[in-house]
């Protein structure tokens, strides 16, 4: 059990029930927003809305609790030192309830909801689903960052941005609310500040996080009708059973317990309506309808579910990195069931993973039954746009999302070549596409060019590439600073500049490994080479994995002179934040040989770099974002960059050209 929070210093605020009610009505929207942002992101948005309203409404004490701990609390003074009487008291009550919502006492069964979740009485909403209005890209980015932070850190972020509290007062308030490690939570909230930037307050007040301004959609009407019928059938069976038991007892007899037929597991599968994707704010795998010619084949679906829950001998089980292979915790969603190139294929989704089941058709002696697991949590319009349904002889058949209106292919190594049409069936199944690494050589790199439908807000074209996983990776590009793009803002790979940048990097994609959800190429610097040898481009290719950590390759692309030209890797790193949202400063170095035979140490940094210092066999300093100094053969040189905000920055890692 968590220890009792220590009492905090400060004035004691005593409020009456009437004052508390007045303060609650006045501050209702802000308190609901605070509770909504603190509550666990594992809850559905509909339930988070209802629980947030319930916690705020239950912050008002009952008639028998109008004194003592519930009406006397030591809380930090409100912004400006004033505020309505009772507002600080209510803030503490809501904060304490939201932080404790998912807290489990020691020994509490994991399969049961937390005690707080069992006690909270939700507002009654029948036949409707509620969720806040969709925000823009900045709101989605902030929401994803908040989802990775602790509830106490999210609370500290909101209290600082919207309530104007200082860090010491936030720590005091978190301690009074029973939060664990309040100081660490305050430090973590500053990392959310870095994501939100100067527009943090406006983002938090946006409709994306406003649980009082919501959209409504009906629940699954057909399922609701089936449930009503099942309820009436159950009531009838209970009445009948009670009647039979009463009659047997009256005759002095005993009734043996009876068991009915087991529920068909295929009947528990969730199936989204065909057009749900066009009328929802959550465009991901949960909006995929069930497609394929065998979606009603209960025997096939039951075999797939059995192989998932308890794979029998002879079933080959594989998984993407950091992906659980355990049985589903709830009824999964059916995405596809059909015959594809000599195999029966079933695709299932449980909210966290996509599961691919395959078996040979009757009489076929091909590959044995197989189950493959891939992570798909927090997928979106681009990362849930396609699945690799079938691989055969170096070719891939994809199943595209229902919101994909147009599908083509292109060769990533030929940026000037046009897109090529690709045939797609009415179910979204593509014709076979050659895999990028077929044959082991890198003379071509086919990718999918997809355009989303105009019926969703995020209408745009984008590229995805196969890296051997069930989910292809989303490719993006960040241009050089000063090229017209906002700072560190990835773009889709559709412009000539972006396509040329990816043509230099495509063959390096296998080095980034599997388990990636997206890969971004960032051209972070451009440098004039010594001896008028032309201009070189420094870039960083970052693969962001589904579990979070990234892998990076830093590259230098020089003209076809001197050291042979083309693109070479100068540094590698795994499990790093470099070149991502939380690692926006980077510096890299290598040695380079000119046509004259002279060797140089080259270095370059991102836009916040103001100078570069070299030590070792070459000792020199330079101002600006690039550095070039003569170096002896085999020189060992270490560089550090000076940043505009103070401090220094070391290179991401030593590459193959660092000590030649």
Mean pLDDT: 81
Task: Report how far the terminal alpha carbons are from each other.
Answer: 59 Å
Radius of gyration: 30 Å
Uncertain runs: 1-12, 63-84, 251-264, 654-660
Q: How would you characterize this protein structure?
A:
The chain has 660 residues and is α+β, with helices and mostly antiparallel strands. It contains 13 helices and 29 strands. Strands 12, 13, 15, 16, 17, 18, 19, 20, 21 and 22 form a ten-stranded mixed sheet that branches. Strands 5-9-8-7-6 form a five-stranded mixed sheet, with helices on one face. It has a four-stranded antiparallel sheet with strand order 26-25-28-29, with no helix packed on it. β21 and β22 form a beta hairpin. α7 packs across α8. The longest helix is centred in the middle third of the chain and has 30 residues. The N terminus and C terminus are likely disordered.
Fill in the keyword field for this structure.
660 residues; alpha+beta; disordered C terminus
Structure summarized in a few sentences:
By secondary structure, the protein is an alpha+beta fold. The chain is built from 13 helices and 29 strands.
Write the layout of secondary structure elements.
Blueprint: E1 12-14, H1 17-26, H2 28-38, H3 45-57, E2 72-74, H4 87-99, H5 115-119, E3 128-132, H6 137-147, H7 151-163, H8 167-176, H9 182-196, H10 200-204, E4 214-218, H11 221-250, H12 298-309, E5 316-319, E6 333-340, E7 343-349, E8 353-360, E9 370-375, E10 386-392, E11 395-400, E12 404-411, E13 420-421, E14 433-434, E15 446-452, E16 461-465, E17 473-478, E18 491-492, H13 496-503, E19 516-528, E20 535-545, E21 550-558, E22 566-576, E23 587-593, E24 599-605, E25 609-616, E26 620-623, E27 626-630, E28 637-643, E29 648-649
Parallel strand pairs: 5-9, 17-19
Antiparallel strand pairs: 1-2, 3-4, 6-7, 7-8, 8-9, 10-11, 11-14, 12-13, 12-15, 15-16, 16-17, 17-18, 19-20, 20-21, 21-22, 23-24, 24-27, 25-26, 25-28, 28-29
Helix pairs in contact: 2-3, 2-4, 2-7, 7-8, 7-9, 8-9
